[in-house]
Amino acid sequence: MKLMGYKRANGTVGVRNHVLILSTIVCANHVAAGIEKQVPGSVSVTHQHGCAHVGADYEQVLRTLVGFAAHPNVYGTVVVGLGCEEVEAEKVAEAARKAGQQNVAVIIIQKEGGTLKAIAKGAGYAREFMSQASQVAREEIQIEDIILATECGGSDACSGLSANPSLGYCSDKMVELGGTAILAETTELFGAEHLLADRAADETVRKRVYEVINRMEKKILDMGVDLRGAQPSPGNMEGGITTIEEKSLGCVYKGGESTLQEVIDYAYKPTKKGLVWMDTPGQDIEQLVGMVAGGAQVVIFTTGRGTPTGSPIAPVIKVATNTYTYENMIDNMDVNAGTIVTGDETIAEVGERLFTEMVEVMNGKLTKAEILGHHEFGINRIGPTV
User: Fold this and answer.
1) Cβ atoms of 54 and 383 closer than 8 Å
2) What is the rounded average pLDDT for all residues in the chain?
3) pLDDT at res. 244
4) Cβ(14)–Cβ(141) under 8 Å?
5) Closest-CA residue to 332 (of 361, 363, 292, 305)
6) Neighbours of 157 (CB within 10 A)
7) Which residues, listed in sequence order, are joined to residue 278 by a DSSP beta bridge?
8) In terms of Cα–Cα distance, which of 330, 329, 353 is closest to 340?
9) For residues 136 and 148, what is the distance between their CA atoms, to the nearest angstrom?
10) Structure confidence by residue, pLDDT tens digits, 267-318
11) Is the pTM of this model over 0.85?
């Protein structure tokens, strides 16, 4: 197996070489999107966040944006702000530089004199970064430097039988080779936490497993709401999942059988190699963004119902849990794990096929989500907008 990627000055490696146009506030979204239109090949991140955040919620939004700006899949970032927001563009840019991003430019709409001037100046920066990025060649990289994000969305009764176990096989192989795999989706692990606790590297990690589950359960109970209807979702139930425990017992398979090395909070980078659990919600986009902000260079996303989402900066490989979904949504699906359900392949065979697909994608093969231009983005909020 030979991996080819982009070596960064801070010691990380990327599997893509994007120029990112990053809005720091909803008020800058139009300008960020306008810069992307002016510079073909660049990618933009737009969102509803950036102002009226306080405390831990502010820190989480800032940390997530910095994680994207300084991501190893990004050659250079144009940070676009309005000029009076809570999450200041200059703070994002400075934190990205400290994290090792050498190519950062800042556009402040109010300072530039409005939308058109800001787009023009930002496009100039982006074109220069694109020119530089085009001259950077892939080099041989090591799988030890790769972080794989695992995700399941639009799950069905086949998820825990086919795609998730095959992803678990792939995750275990990553760990065996010295890489890192992130398991997420805390609300979709309710009822299966004991399985992770039993695989904890030490007592500290074991206690942390229950702490994270109990914290999430308490948050839901304090709101006075019923988890059912959101977990499992109406689509999950139509697909044959009846309880959160059923969904969780399928979800946990994505983590394979490896030892759980640590549990980290949302959008933090793993400090250990091996299997890591990130505390995220079950909502597909928010969990994906958290793992990518934490440094994941590639994502494998299993789906039973068919979920067509992607990431602005990380390739997302879609794995169908059943052949019907694979054929019905062939525009979006990369791999069919439904062959396990029909008895044509084993979990190990599909796991090997999935691992090979992941290597090809890291080496440059485009995923369906990339080809279609899926750039979904959303940050998990932990506080009110004030």
Assistant:
1) yes
2) 94
3) 62
4) no
5) 305
6) 18
7) 264
8) 353
9) 23
10) 999 999 999 999 999 999 999 999 999 999 999 999 999 999 999 999 999 9
11) yes
Could you report the per-residue pLDDT of 215-233, keeping only the tens digit for each? 988 888 887 876 655 556 6
Residue 229 is predicted with a pLDDT of 54
The fold adopted by the segment(s) 18-133 is Rossmann fold (3.40.50)
pLDDT for res 46: 96
Distance CA 76, CA 98 (A): 14
Contact criterion met (CB below 8 Å) for 247 and 338: no
> Which among 108, 117, 101, 52 has a CA at the least distance from the CA of 79?
108
Q: Reduce the DSSP state of residue 322 to 3 states and report it.
A: coil
Q: Which residue has the tokens 């659990």?
A: 277
Residue 283 CB: number of other CB atoms within 10 A? 17
> What tokens were used for 58?
């502010």
Amino acid (1-letter code) at residue 188: E
Alpha carbon of 327 to those of 79, 158, 235, 306, 321: distances in Å? 40, 15, 18, 10, 11
Per-residue pLDDT at 240? 65
Q: Which pair of tokens denotes residue 55?
A: 């405390």
Q: Where along the chain do its domains lie?
A: 18-133, 141-372
pLDDT-flagged residues of the chain (< 70): 226-233, 235-237, 239-247
- Helix (H) / strand (E) containing 58: helix 55-69
| DSSP-assigned states of every residue in 238-299 | HTT--SHHHHHHHHGGGGTT--EEEEE-TTPPPSSSEEEEE---S-HHHHHHHHHHTT--EE
Q: 151 is written with which tokens?
A: 């995700």
Q: Exposed, middle or buried: residue 96 (CB in 10 Å: 0-12, 13-18, 19+)?
A: buried
Assign residue 357 a region (left: φ > 0; alpha: ψ between -120 and 50; beta: otherwise). alpha
